[in-house]
Amino acid sequence: MSLFSPSILIGEWRVDADLDRVSRDGHEIKVEPRAMRVLLYLVAHAGRNVSVNELLENVWPDVVVGPDSVYEAISLLRRTLGDDQQRPAFIAQIPRKGYRLIAPVTPVPKPEPAAESLPPPASPALDPSPPITPSSHTLANRRTAAMLATVAVIAALGAVYWLPHLKSPSLQQPSNAGQPGQRASQPAADRPSIAVLPFLDMSENGDMGYFADGMAEELIDALARNTDFHVPARTSSFYFKGKQVTVAAIARSLNVDNVLEGSVRRSGNKVRVTAQLVRADSGYHLWSQTFDRELDDIFAVEDDIATAVVRTLQANVPAGPLVNISTARRESHNLYLQCVFFRQRNTEIDADKAVACFQKLLSVDANDANAWAAYADALFRQTVIRDLSADERRNGAGEALRAAQHALQLDANLAAAHTMLASYHKVVERDWRAADAELNIALNADPTDPATLLAAAGLARDLGRFDQAIELCQRTQARDPLNFQPYARLGMIYLYEGRLDEAEAAVRKRLDLSPDGFGSHAQLADLLLARGDYQAALTAAQSEPNEPLRFVSLALAYHALGRHRDSDAAMTQMKQRYSNLYPTQIADVYAFRGQIDQAFESLNKALAVGDWDLASIKVDWYFKGLRGDRRYAALLQKMNLPE
User: Fold this and answer.
1) Spatial CA neighbour of 426 closest among 408, 448, 406, 400
2) CA-based nearest residue to 576, from 608, 539, 547, 609
3) pLDDT the model gives residue 173
4) Which of 312, 212, 327, 224 is nearest to 265 (CA)?
5) Which helix (H) or strand (E) holds 565?
6) Facing residues of 23 across strands?
């Protein structure tokens, strides 16, 4: 009879393979069966390199999948075990050779039987020989015995769990999943809360990322619009994409009790979608199901998933479908998801791809109001991301305006289109009343939409309504807690008001959420200059990835340090390359250096060329010293801004 249970320890983690579960310090986490199969294969071959092809051949023997399936499974295991890819303690990646389990593997002894069931001890035989001191040979034998015991446990696990599971490519559903009457306990909060994580692309070629992202985004939208659940917005839920973070840590960051995750695998016109609803504090699956459908039936799958989530977390399911897509959209849905995917990436190349994609989409379905609003947003983003002249920006914004107006002809209450009109009125026409009116309509149509809330916060900030702007930023954070933009807005307001501790907290949070984003380090440099920490401001300026912002921040920091030649050199580069694109930023430097006439010269140039940054003149910390100058009041009047 074996002295070991069908479980093993990998480092500090107990692995109960038959339950698809790992645990440590009383905390249990469910592991997806496909990831568990990979883990057990690595355990069975601990200490040697296991190639990606070997894993594919042995873990997915009857399924045609590509290397991405291995990469996703390894990523899930690292996230579950809290492993660091750069400094691994469990699974090491060996360049060009695959993976190796490097954590110690030991068997878990069976619990001691109760005392009354133990047989009486045998009488020890008398041995007159002296005690034997353990030698190196004896210790080696003990290590060998321990290794053999571990191998025996692994072999037993293979017989009980691993080999039968390798033949089943689908994720197994918990025994009670989806059955009537099975309800999750309600969280302590007043309403259920759930985060929808990006679905994994398990397709053979790994080319369905846009489709997997689109499905998750549509589920977020359906649950947010049609239930009273707290559902973090896309920006926050997608923040963890590709990161090694446990479900429990994600839930804490997003302030939710439940997490929905899944995967998508497409082959031809067939699609397999696996979804699981996980209770964050325990790791238990509350519901799980695999759907094998035709691609044309994907909306029914989304609705089935959303409905199952609602039924699991609360008793009442709203009448009608939760995922409601027009008949016309169904025919062009795949193209729509590609367009949205390009738009969200926020790079110059992808901005152009998004515009072209939406143009193709609208040639197929010209009556989709949401597609027209998304096209307007893509056009407007294109003008912001690319380094365009004032005329090119104005022309691009005009195209965005016409697209948004067309969207409203199709759906007069579409919040996204009203928000786009507000942006145009604000930065192009400087019609603040019209912008305010459009945002009020948008907020009435969708009071929790993060994009609308951010736009309203930006307008309130630029008009000097700081209390209102702060409140709108806080509302955005409640809906989208890991979006860096409300922190950027708050940091600007707090800096202007002299609330430096609050400003630093907001700016550093922005930097934490978007360490490589344009403007994060430049904003930190502004804050550090206000604190008088000039050397740290220089370090932050040198880290800014955006070239024009880096030149400006360097010119400011060098001047504060008394390195005037270096400040002038940075300004020369800025003016040679960007004088017609960013005159407001150049005016910041002149104002900080006390060159007031040159500052107003640059501000008037900003007004003439239509520099959109000028809209925030009333909250720009560097311009506080200009407020007493009559030229400042005249400039506000030309911009239709109240003093």
Assistant:
1) 400
2) 547
3) 29
4) 212
5) helix 564-578
6) 14, 28
Interatomic CA distance for residues 40 and 297, integer angstroms = 35
* Amino acid occupying residue 275: A
CATH level 3 topology of 4-111+146-166: Arc Repressor Mutant, subunit A (1.10.10)
Query: Which residue do the tokens 């409140």 mark?
Result: 471
* Token pair recorded at residue 40: 């057990």
Q: How confident is the model at residue 334 (pLDDT cuts 50, 70, 90)?
A: confident
Statement: residue 351 has pLDDT above 60: yes
CATH 3.40.50.10070 residue spans of the chain: 194-324
Start and end residues for every CATH 1.10.10.10 domain found in the chain:
4-111+146-166
Q: Is the pLDDT of residue 64 over 60?
A: no
| Lookup: tokens for 442 | 């948008």
pTM of the complete model beyond 0.85: no
What's at 179, amino acid-wise? Q
For 251-264, what is each residue's pLDDT tens digit? 999 999 999 998 88
Looking at domain 194-324, which CATH architecture does it have?
3-Layer(aba) Sandwich (3.40)
Q: Torsion angle of alpha carbons 505, 507, 508, 510, nearest 10°?
A: 120
Secondary structure (3-state) at 55: helix
The CA distance from 559 to 54, in Å, is 60
The residue among 441, 479, 422, 482 whose CA lies nearest residue 221 is 479
Token reading at 157: 């696990």
